[in-house]
Specification:
- The protein is an alpha+beta fold and 211 residues long.
- The chain has 4 helices and 12 strands, in the order H-E-H-E-E-E-H-E-E-E-E-E-H-E-E-E.
- Strands 1, 2, 3, 4, 5, 6, 7, 8, 9, 10, 11 and 12 form a 12-stranded antiparallel beta sheet that branches.
- A hairpin with a 2-residue loop joins strand 10 and strand 11.
- The two termini are 31 Å apart.
- The relative contact order is 0.19.
- The N terminus is likely disordered.
């Protein structure tokens, strides 16, 4: 089961690219133009893959998800209504797990940037999530938590797809992990690297709808 899962993960992560591409830097105007071209709202599905310490990796889907890409003013990707309640499936502390299970969905931002561009107009683009602040009430007190996120995503955006109004046609999966749960400087629980044989893991894909 786990071998099949990791094979699927690798297939979704790595996109084909042309051989020996030549890249160069981008001007501010080019970045602004490309950012305007990719800005917008995108519909999709959250696919959550996790392991709660057992022998099998499990998965669940949350339909009707939405992602917003801003222009260069904010240079951010906003994931809307992220189901933090799903984390309750992998949290060891019972009180925290119960509080998470009833937690409302949240929005959070990930910074993006353009790295460089080929002569044909294709550009390297990527985003990096940081953290989700979360306040939960359990044990008779309010707990101000931070979900530390990880996993940089790098995408080759095709100029042809951008011109066609479908900038992410070649890369329809955006992924990130929840690496740990903190309260202040205190680590409440770590969630190990999804690539390793570990006890508890939690990975999210935002899968764009087709069309």
């Amino acid at each position: 089961m786990r071998k099949i899962f990791f094979a699927l993960l690798a297939a979704l992560t790595f996109a084909a690219c042309s051989s020996d591409p030549v890249f160069h830097g981008m001007t501010t105007k080019q970045k602004e133009d490309y950012a305007k071209a990719i800005a917008g709202e995108y519909k999709g599905t959250y696919v959550i893959i996790y392991n709660d310490g057992g022998s099998d990796t499990k998965a669940g889907k949350v339909e009707g998800a939405q992602m917003t890409v801003t222009d260069l003013t904010m240079h951010a990707v906003c994931f809307h209504d992220y189901p933090v309640s799903q984390l309750s499936k992998v949290v060891a502390d019972r009180a925290l797990a119960e509080a998470l299970a009833s937690a409302p969905n949240v929005d959070f931002l990930a910074d993006y940037r353009f790295y460089d561009m080929q002569d044909n107009g294709d550009v390297n683009w990527g985003f990096e999530p940081a953290a989700i602040p979360l306040t939960l009430h359990y044990g008779g007190a309010a707990h101000h938590l931070v979900l530390k996120l990880n996993f940089k995503t790098f995408i080759l955006l095709s100029k042809a797809n951008i011109d066609a109004g479908k900038p992410f046609a070649n890369q329809s999966v955006f992924q990130f992990t929840v690496e740990g749960i903190y309260e202040g400087d205190t680590l409440l629980q770590t969630l190990d690297d999804i690539w390793q044989e570990s006890e508890r893991e939690f990975l999210t894909y935002f899968q764009l709808n087709e069309g």
